[in-house]
């Protein structure tokens, strides 16, 4: 069994860095990667893989012509230490789409398994993703760079290794949007689209259509997930399991002493706590992941693998964004329980720990959304009361909390809302809304000024989230080579808590259009 060797990204993107304006230094794959076993067989031959963590295989370049549809300036500058001038170089598109290898890079596909919709699915793995290498930036942060949609690997099963424009636009925009919402997430550097035909049955109804291929270059501190460990336990590869687990603890959980005899227990407890916090953050911004399988749950508790996600509009704890989820297993209200299921697959009998922490995290986040200071006995009741009113009236989740952060207390008292506060107007129709208002006003600290409360609440209640109708509008234009709305959304979502003139003109904080209710999103991508 050979180990990963010579996998240095000595000058990531150095082929682009002839300009004196650009200063860039790269670190090699960390030394511990050399201890992780590599597949004995090279190449993308689809097969059952044993005895390793990664398989070596090369990306398959997209067919030209290629178009650089979007770039995250924040990732470019603040993670990769690059000047925006590099995107003007024609080689940049090749490097970030798999057409040209980074110097020293050995592209890898990760082997993992997972429980999908509650059932063990066996070997899964990176079926259309290639890990290019690792970069340590000027701040000392280590980031792993991965292409998605870059061709077949040993884990492609019956897939073609490609991704299409609509799913790639959604992943690019949402990963960046979640970052600026303050939710731990993978990031996206770039979106490249091509004219290469890709055939997809979007809603699994035997209606196969031709779409266009695209590649996203995405980044994360680590791409290891619960399924990374599950596959090794399931196949009895306990030596590889211990090697990988020791690596993960040493590199990503540095506060855990490697000589601690309870290090695995401490590790699992940490994952439970941080996963509970992540799910609470999802729920606090109305985000439903859509496919909460164990192969999509990061061991570092960051949001990864954006597929048929959705941001809840009308408040509904049964909101399911994924049309493939007929039973509603991954509804927004079920995410905490699904998280518990996934963690039970990682370690048995941690339910009390998750339940206690999850409730605490949820409670504290919603207290902040309502502007509460301190703790009072009836806080949970006030929160639950409001959510019930929202459920009964179908009030918009995001804009109800945002408009509560913008309304004055006197407006709340009288129920006199301007037309722009359409979400609160929906709530006003409920017979018990005024009762809730009285409880809310009584709960707010008398010493707390209206302006201070509004400022505090506006810092945690976004005005803009990536709603499906907004993404769909951008996708329709992108498929016609008009990337203007992708750019507008990207700009808007970098400051989701700040009112923006262009976003307002585009209607991003207005009541969703009627056609938005007919949109469907599936796992097809």
Automatic annotation (TrEMBL):
Question: Any idea which UniProt keywords this protein has?
Answer: ATP-binding, Magnesium, Metal-binding, Nucleotide-binding, Nucleotidyltransferase, Transferase
* GO molecular function annotations of the record: ATP binding; metal ion binding; nucleotidyltransferase activity
Q: Where is the sequence biased in composition, kind Polar residues?
A: 511-525
One Pfam family hit: SelO
- Residue ranges for the region (Disordered) are 500-525
Entry keyword Translocase = no
Q: Domain of life, per the record?
A: Eukaryota
Q: Which cofactor does it need?
A: Mg(2+)
For the keyword ATP-binding, the answer is yes
The family database entries (InterPro entries) matched by this protein are listed as:
SelO
Describe the family membership recorded for this protein in Swiss-Prot or TrEMBL: Belongs to the SELO family.
NCBIfam families on file: PRK00029.1
Tell me the protein's name. Answer: Selenoprotein O
Tell me which species this is from. Sinocyclocheilus anshuiensis
